Fold:
Amino acid sequence: MKKYILSIFCIICLLSSINVYGQTLFEKGMQEFKEENYEEALQYFLEARTLEPKSSTVAFYLGLTYKLTENYKAAVPYLRDAVTFTPRVKEALVELIDALYQTDNLKEAKEWIEVGEKEEIQPARIQFLKGLILSKEGKYMEAVTAFEKAKSIDPSMAQAAEFQIAGALTKEGKLKEAQKRFKSTITLDPTTDMATYAKDYEKMIAEKIERERPWRFSIGLNYKYDSNVVAKGTGPIADAISGSEDSAINLSMRIGYTFPFSFKTPYNLSFQYSLFAEKYFPKQYERADGTIGNLNEYNNMSNVFSLIPGYNFEKWSLSFPMTYIYNSLQGDKGNSFLGEPTTWWNTTRYMEQYGITPTARFMVTKNSVGEVSFGIAQKRYFETLLHPEPFTSDENRNATMMNSSLGWTYFFKEGKGIFGLKYTYGKEEADGRNWSIDYENRFNMTFLYPLYDFIKKPIKFLASADIAFTQYKFDNAFFDTKRRNDTYYLSGGFIYEGFMDDLVKGKNKEGFVYELFKNTDLVAQYTYIRDRCNIKIYDYKRELITVGFEYKF
Structure:
């Protein structure tokens, strides 16, 4: 009798554990699940699972609860049971595929994708998940096809699909197409979190496209006031020179090309060409010998060609800039400089220089870069009717130049501000004794500071200082002493970035603002040069004031 009563009591306790106030453990779990109390729901579902181990429904919600708490590994076996037990829970298939994707079990995920495609279970979500899996496998264009199918089946998935397509195209390297897709994501519904993310990504893509443009061009035009065009020195000889100040118009142009593989591999290669032409206004001056000259004689042009191969290591880079420079000087050709296009190249040629400067750059801190270089170059002066050979071999300036340098650059204000220091040691072995340099110690400082915080305008302050102490090797043949120059270059100015932005603005057919002159900078600069020399004819002062603009595209 006692055994019978005890058995009845155990049955009552068991029934009470299954049905609490008319609810089963599963129903209690569902109540908590609907209220998003997933931790409580999980406990009820686990207890229900022990009572109904073959229930596909219990397995489904148990796996789904684990998935919602981001425990994807624990969710997989229960979701797998939900799609294999009878009756199968079709909704569990996409959840299983997603959990397998999250745990990088891509092989099994693809097997279940095939099942879903064959049985046409939630086809839009199946294609979306297929796209995610293909993207993770690096099959980006196949992923794009899957995402396109997903949004064509279910238009409500268009924004999510566009966002994923943009990501896949970015990884494929099709940045301009990716940018359009991010813009499309924003347009579909600007109020969503996804649209906010898309704006950030679109901005990053735009910056990346700008950084990785293979071609770069710039053109500048400046007015320059020069207080001492002829570098008039001091002493009796220099005193005979008069009228040495003048104004000039400067034209500059740069063309650069970076080979596309440079943005995708450690190897890099770029080519650059720059042109600088300077034309003084017609003005007469008196030479030291009493003859009358024209400051147009100092019109000059410089062509610089550079080829820069290099390699980027993990924390440092190595490059080998090779440079060729061709300089023209008008001389006594008068106002006809460049007026004879078939002959000016040869008749006005003045000097050429070519060399190589192996350079290593490395990270010093998070915001600073160090640089070490060694260079060797050959300089040769042409002999033409306008520029005949030196009247004495001691004045032959053809030379071999060698230099080594050590530099450090610090970036601040999110990279828009720069502070740099550089030291260079050089020497020059010239054919003429008067121009051989025993050694030169050069110190350089550059400072660029954005003034946005103070004046709310895109203006930068630029300052630089360059100081060189140069000791010549031999006694000068004319002055019977070793020449020494202490040269100081001090410069300061302002750069107004995009000063023409407000002149031409509009919207293209997609509704996005364009600015025709957004890359045009206005530049104003003052430079003071003081060359102290123990030979008076080479001792001079010079002031330069420059105002102009540069357009970059």
User: Anything to note?
Assistant: The radius of gyration is 38 Å. Residues 1-21, 502-516 have pLDDT under 50 and may be disordered.
